[in-house]
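pinging the channel bc i need a second pair of eyes. not urgent but kinda urgent?? the chain im working w is below, pasted from the shared doc
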Amino acid sequence: MSDKFNKELSELYKQVATKQKNTKGMPHMGDSLENFRGRKGVSDVGIPLSPKAAKRKQSNRAGYHYPQHLQNINERRRRDAMAKHGITNIEDPFNQKEKKDKTFTQPAANRSVYWRPPMDDGPRKKRANIYYDDWSTPAEPVPVEYILPPETKKQPAYKAKMVRRDNTLKFKNKLEEDIYNHPNYKKQFK
């Protein structure tokens, strides 16, 4: 091959290499880091550390859709709410555009921004005043009998270890005998 061809080939290679380098841009520091699962550009808790990882995460989110049964439930609730409040256009829930037309009125246009409890159709019963009404006071007090529970025997803090044989006390050791004969030992059983 001629030198001229090699020279042109090397210049072409340099042009392509610089063009490719310029389109890629500078590598971001976050692209080289990887989390404990081995994913590059993302921290251990899933936060993107580089613009490339953030774009990849955003495109993954865009592909997610609700399961169909949940989407059906949400759409049905939305339709019911729109019918309840008389909304026909989602972009204009307060019917500002239709207000210009005098013949068209909707209940949604007259709604208040303050919440009020729903009105009951039935008549209200008078509230009973248990402090002042005669009919609600008890006629006479009912006697109450209090029954005390039986007294429980007081458990001693320490009980000496002994054995009764032939109406005599036999202790396991001398220390147990001294504890039993101490004047405060008998007081704890009273």
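so The helical segments are 3-24, 29-32, 51-62, 68-85, 96-99, 174-181, 183-187. and The longest helix spans residues 3-24. — does that match what u expected or am i reading it wrong
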